[in-house]
What we know:
By secondary structure, the chain is α/β, with parallel strands linked by helices. 31% of the residues lie in helices and 23% in strands.
Amino acid sequence: MNGPDDGRVGTILHAADLHLGTPLQSLGSRLDPMIASEISERASRAFGNLVNVAVEEAVDIVVLAGDVYDTAEYEVRAQLRFTDGLRRLGDAGIRVFVAHGNHDPLTTGFRRAAQLPDNVTVFDPGDPQVHRVDLPGGHVVHVAGVSFATKHETSNLAALFRELETPAAATVGVLHANVGSSTEHGPYAPCTTSDLESAPVGYWALGHIHKRAVHPIGPGRWWAYPGNLQGRSSKASECGPKGFLLIPVTPDGFAEPEFRPCAEVRFERIDVDVSTCANLEEVIDAIEVSAVEGIEDLCTVVARVRLTGRSDLHTDLVKLGDVGLLEEVQDRVGTSISYAVTKIEIATRTAINREQILARRDMRSALLTRLDATTDRQEALRKCLEGLHPQAQSRLAEMLDASPELADELFDLAEQRLFDVLDEVS
């Protein structure tokens, strides 16, 4: 099958952080074991789906930027599945380049379950190594990369690429690294965007950060994280569609990367507004609709749900509790694996009839009148912190500047809490 006729001279597939062999996290202890097992099996298909796309779309090069495995220890099943996929890529004439990262460093204890096929090049630790790839139309791409020799790699490996003598417009750099010292991941192979810009690399195929990010650094030049191939938990960076990037190679460099999902299991953190629900059945319906909304038919959603909104059901939901409601939801799902809810947080509030409260002449009406009269909520919040530690005041100011809507959210929470207290003492 030929590639798309859009002026490209080749196509590169960039993936990272496959973490093959890792168990799924956040499935919860209350999920039916058979359902959990099926979800885990679906999650293991992500790499096979990557291979299918690579073959069907006739990509020329596949680069894998570290953490192919979740551990450097001997994990037979994951390695055999990986090797089988590499052979399929080789049968289609696709070159594969692999860099190892902090989870699967090329230590002396790393052992392979099978010999890698001839189409695969694994970068060694040390200085970046460069390999030439001749594309069918005569264009040349240079793929440069380096692997970790230790789990705790603290050297700036990106800086080593400055010594390359290849043209940036035809060079791909494959590296597992933490650009900008992201605090969400370990500080391994730390570097700056200046390090990336100053090297003769047109496309930086990076790994390590699980949240997808694509950044231009000049005409025909990019650095990108594809994110991990398959989410593993409900942590924010693990949620949402997961997959890889396809990068068109042009005569003048590299075109904008295109994301392709390939994970059959998607973790999500979902807020469900139940303010219009009349009963528990409608609450469960709302959870189900929110969990599967906009999700592909072949994708299983593993959801962590937070119930929000003012509701007459607030008291009943609190009495039922997070665990009780979770059991009700899981009973509804039964043996279906279109979605699975692993945790529920009840963050609803008591319904308030503002008109009725304001019509009374009591403490509640006085409280509500005073809150409604506060027009500048940001300034009111700052005054509340006067006399406290300057760092606390500074932090609040930063949060309010970044998210002006935070003031309204805090006032709503304060209003709800004050009404709850009045209900408790009345």
